[in-house]
Amino acid sequence: MENLQTQEFTLRPLPTPQDEVKPTLSMHPHKFALWLFIVTVIMIFAAFTSAYIVKQAEGGWDYFELPPIFGINTIIIVLSSITLHWAYLSAKRDNLQQNRIALFVTTAIGVTFLIMQIIGWRELVYMGKFFTGGNASAAFVYVLTAVHGVHLVSAVIYLIVMVVKALGFRVHSKNMLNMEMSTTYWHFLGGLWVYLYLFLLLNN
Amino acid sequence: MATANVALAHDAAHDDHHHEHKETFWNKYVFSQDHKMIAKQFLITGIIWAFIGGLFSVFFRLQLGFPNADLMWLKPILGRWIIETNGVGQLDPEFYLALVTMHGTIMVFFVLTAGLSGTFSNFLIPLQIGARDMASGFMNMLSYWFFFASSIVMFSSLFIETGPASGGWVIYPPLSALPQAVNGSGLGMTLWLVSMVLFIASTLLGGINYITTVINLRTKGMSFSRLPLTVWAFFLTAVIGLLSFPVLFSAALLLVFDRSFGTSFYLSEIYIGGEALPNVGGSPILFQHLFWFLGHPEVYIVLLPALGITSEIISTNSRKPIFGYRAMIGSMLGIAFLSFIVWAHHMFVTGMNPFLGSVFMLLTLIIAVPSAIKAFNYITTLWKGNIVFTPATLFSIGLVSLFISGGLTGIFLGNSAIDIQLHDTYFVVAHFHLVMGSASFFGMMAGVYHWFPKMFGRMMDARLGYIHFWFTFVGVYMVFFPMHYIGIAGFPRRYYSWTTFETFQGFTDLNMFVSIAAIVTFSSQLVFAFNFFYSIFRGRKSPVNPWRSNTLEWTTPVNPGHGNWPGEIPTVYRWPYDYSKPGAEEDFIPQHIPYAQTPESNLPHEQELVKQEEADAKANDEIVVEDTNH
Question: What is the interface pTM, i.e. ipTM, of the complex?
Fold first, then answer.
C-alpha cells in the first residue's frame, strides 16, 4: 500500500505554474504524523519550562548545583545519536551486519542513559533535594527528567522493535521508513535533553 | 481516461488487502477502523453526554429558579444528594457545585470537543478531500477508544460517595487540590484528572490524524485553495488542539503531583483548622496561566468546526457561492493565531499588572475583526440568496445570530476595566453560553441535520427538525438573555443560594423565568433524540445528493462502504462553491466536473484552464503506458 502510494505520486505530472493539479505533500503520512507528535512533545516541555521561568521569577527560589552525572549523561545521549546515525547510514548502504550492531549499541546506550538518570535522582536525594516537600526548584528537575525519561522509554521500545526488524532482514535501503522515523524520534529526544540540560544549567 | 487506470491498479491492491479479514460485528460496529463508523461512534457518545450534561443544568436551574421548592421527588434519582430538612428536600450544596463542574466539563470537552470535532472531522475530512480513509485508521480507532475510556472514568465519578469533581470545570487549585476544601476534590477530582489525561490522548491522536490526512491524502486537484471551508475549519481546529492540549497535560500533571505526591507547584502556606499544610512556596496563578493557555484556544476548538459547518450549509442552501472564501480562510487563520495570545483576559482580576492587562485587552479586542468578517460574510452569502430553509439552514442562521449577540458582549468583557465589575457574574455565563456554547451546539445540530443522509442513508424528518429548531432557538435566548441583566447587577456565578442577599431579592422572577425556559429547551431536545434515532432505522431513504451540494462526499454511493468510492476517487477541477453560476444549466456544479464540460458557464480565465486539463489528461495517458510496462 505504501509503495503504491509513492508510486502513484511519482507518476503524477510535474507541478504546473498555475493553480492546477498540485501534488500533495510527498512525505509519508506516518512520518508526518511523527513530526506532529514531536510538536506535541515540544508543547509539553514548552509549558514546563515556561512554568519554571514564571515560578522562578516569583522569588523564593532555591538555587543549587546540578549533580555532574546529568552532564555526563548529556554526552552519552549525544553519543547515542551518533551511533544511531551510523545505523541509519549502514541501512541505507545495505550493510545489514553493521546496521544490527549499531542499532543494538544505540539501544544499550539508551538503557544506560535511563539508568544514569535514575542514579542522578539518587544523587539529588543525597544532596537533600527531594521531589516532594521542598522547593519547587528541585521538584521541577524531577518532573522534567521524568517526563523526558518516559518519552525516552518509548523510544527505547521503538529501538528494540527496530533491532528485531533488523534481525529479520526487514531494515534495508528499500525499507527505510521505520529506520528514518526511529532516527528522527531519537535525535529529537536527544536534542530535547540537551536543551533541558542547558536550560537547567543556565537557570541554576 | 488515464488517471482511472492508475487509480484502478491502486484500488485492486487495496481490495486485495482488505479481502483478508471478514467483516464481523466486532470489527464493523465496535473496533472499526472506518472513519465513518468512528464518526458515528463519536456522535452517539456525544449525544448521550449532551443529555447527561443538559440534565445536570436542569437540576441546578431548579435550585436557582425555585430556591425553596421541595425536591423530594428527585430523591429516587439523586438519592443522598437530596438532603431533607424539616420534611423539605433540598439539593446538597456540595452536589450543586459538582453539578456545575460536571456540566461545564461534559459540555466543553465531551460534547463540543469530542462530539463535534470527533464526529465531523472524522466523517467529513476523508469524504470531502477525496481520501479512502484517515492516514491511520488504527490511530483513529484508538482515538475513539481513549475517548470511550475517558468517558467511562468520568461517568463512574458521578457515582462515588464523595461525589464528582466540584471545583469548577477550570479546576483552580487550591480548591481542586484539597479534599478538606470540598469533598469533590478527593477521589472525584482524581478521576477527573485521569479522565482528562485519557481525553487529551484521544484528542491528540485524532488531531494528528486530521492534520496528516488533510495535508497528505487530498485527491488530485484538491489544492488548499479548493478545500471546502469545513475542512479548513477542522484542519485549523486540529492544529490549535495539537498546540494547546499538551499544555493542559503539563498543567494537570503538576496538579497531580501537588495533590497526590506533596510537591508545591501550585500550593503555598495554607492553614486548615489552624494546622499548616506541608506545601510551601507554590503559585496558584501559575496554574491559571497554564490552564488558560489551553482554555482559551479551547473556545475556538469548540467554535471553529461549527463555523466551518455553517459556511458550507449556508452557501449550499442559499444557492450562492460563499461570500469572501479567502477572507473566510484568512479570518480563521487570524482567529487561530490570536487564540494563543489572549489567555490572560480570563485573569484580569488576579492582581495582574495593569499594563499587561491592557496588552491582553488590545489583543482580545482584535479578535473582533476576524469574527466580524465572518459574520458579515455569512450575512452577505445569505443576502438575496435563493434560500432553502432546511432544518440545517435554520440552525446555521441561528448560529450566526448567536455568534453576533454573544460576540458583542465579548467586547465588554474583554475590557480589563469593565471586567472588574463583570468578572464571575452571570454576564460571563450569558456571554460564553451564547457565543461558545449555543453557537457551537447550533453548528453541531446543523451538521447532524445536513450530513445525516450521508451518515445513515436516510433522511431526518424535517417537520420535527423545525419544531426542534424553534423551541431551541427561542429557548436559548430566553435562558441566556435575562442573565445579562442579573449579571450587570453583580449576581455572582456558582452560588448555591442567593436569597439571603438583599440586593438580589428582585431577581426571583427572572431566575424562575430562566429556569422554566431551560427546562423547556432541554425537553425540546427529546424531539431531536426521537427524530435522530427513529430516522436511523425508519427514516425516508435518502437520494444520492439530497441538498444538491457540490462537495465530494455526495459523489459517493448513498451508503458508502469502507474506502468510500467503489471505483476511482474523483478528481477535483474547481472550488466547492459554484452555486447558481450564470449560464450553467443547474444551479450547482460539483467539484469533480471539469471545466471542459461546462463551456456555457466558464469565465474567461476558466476557459484557459480547459486547455490545462487536456494537457494534464494527455500527460497522464503517456505515464500510464509506462506503468503497464512496469
Answer: 0.88
